[in-house]
Sequence to fold (475 residues):
Amino acid sequence: MKYLDEFRDSAKARILVTEIEALVSTMDVPHDRPLHIMEVCGGHTHSIFRFGIEGMLPKQIELVHGPGCPVCVLPMGRVDDCVSIAERPEVIFATFGDAMRVPGSRKSLMQAKADGADVRMVYSPLDALAIARNNPAREVVFFGLGFETTMPSTALTILQAESEHVTNFSVFCNHITIVPTIKAILDSPDLKLDGFLGPGHVSMVIGTAPYEFIANFYRKPMVVAGFEPLDILQSIWMVLKQIKEGRADVENQYARVVPDEGNAAALHAVSRVYELREFFEWRGLGSIDHSGVKLRDEYAQFDAERKFTIPNVKIADPKSCQCGEVLKGVIKPWQCKVFGSACTPEMPLGALMVSSEGACAAYYQYGGIKQHAAAE
Amino acid sequence: MCLGIPGCIVKIDDAARMLATVDVSGVRRQVNIACIVDEEHPVSSCVGDWVLIHVGFAMSRIDETEAAETLKILTELGEAQAELEAIHLSAAQQGGHAE
Fold:
């Protein structure tokens, strides 16, 4: 497929691996302290495992899998809220497929559906709006989920609903923002990172300027990266080069998709429809200030939180679950006590085992565990 | 949800609502193109453009020049490596040093 295949060329990948090895060999990395590079985005985590990129890298480089999987950072209480909305007889609850199997304290959306709730998997928020148009007697609630990548699509759908005067459509808004999250990670005392691979598709919307603080205040290199193997390898090489040269800059490897200034139309829709929440609760990371958005008062009629009574109860993660430590990169997925035993993709305890973008599911699925078991 | 997929715009369906049909590897689907339309790129000019599609929205116009540039750097790296290897090989055959 155009724009995919040419960035998967294995001969070029070998060239990049050789370049990375050559660069690292000049860098005097201590044996017991490899360079830690965090990929913030779950899409990168998925690609890294799918294409076996960790296995190609010299041992002086360790990838730390960050918190950028929106499904994975959803607290259990939020899933309970979804189930509670979905179980109302008048409601059709529309959601992306990724969120169906995330465990709540009582049940997942999948189980709610099996028990009779009208839960429908949609590809796009526009599909949810179409369901609302076709079912005027029902209340259609779309589960708005994701970072800045999907935030504009939900906003534009709300604007569309407004212009069509659709009154039976609302959004349960759980959109989250990346910058406060990266800042929380940088301020975390148990983390020592040497550089970042920046989230390509979030950056396509917000541009590269919002990351300047990472370079300026925290003095860490950040390279906005594409999602194909060549993109990721080249971005790792660019981070290494910055470290070697003692630089901390924001660079853009993914210029074919990410304009430095971001997407003006998307940002306009976002600022029109949403405002920042004071704080948002994350699974594993706790509460992070200004890390989520809600609908502005002008769009209250499309806000499921105002249309319905939401239980909004905080539910602690299961004690044995160490998703938080994995999310921050403090431990590897396979170091969690329940990984692969009490927690598997079929019966997930924690959200990281649910989504294909979650680090634990990726390790489990693509055999990272074997590789590490052999290395131990 | 976050990865997206490249597709080519083949038809404008509804210019006022900014809806267009894209071809993704032979599969056609209607998407919203509001985020890739601006003064420089009016709706009517979008047919034939390659875009990255996320959850039913074209979110970015893929820049062909930048894509080619990334690949060109990689090709040049490959050529430089081949060149270096050739120098090393020739030096080894002559019993000298490649430095």
